[in-house]
Amino acid sequence: MIENVKENTLYDVAELFKNFADSTRIRILYCLIEKERSVSEICELLNMNQSAISHQLRILKNSKLIKNRRQGKTIFYSLADDHVYNIIAQGIEHVEE
Asked: Which pLDDT value is given to residue 35?
């Protein structure tokens, strides 16, 4: 199985996991597991300022780990897909074993 994976795919996987190396990003992803949230909701939940959260959201969005939708002036963020949920859930399960 591993022989069939291209080198640049493995590089992309390494880049993906780099995004999970920041505890703020993990906390953001975790709070998006339950439902989509606005930046202000995320700031309140994590007790952080909007600038710091927006910076991390940009990184997560560029990495295709989250997506967003606009409703009027408010932007709501959610996990990009079930793969992201599974990575977080399996990480928590592994750590709690």
From this structure: 97
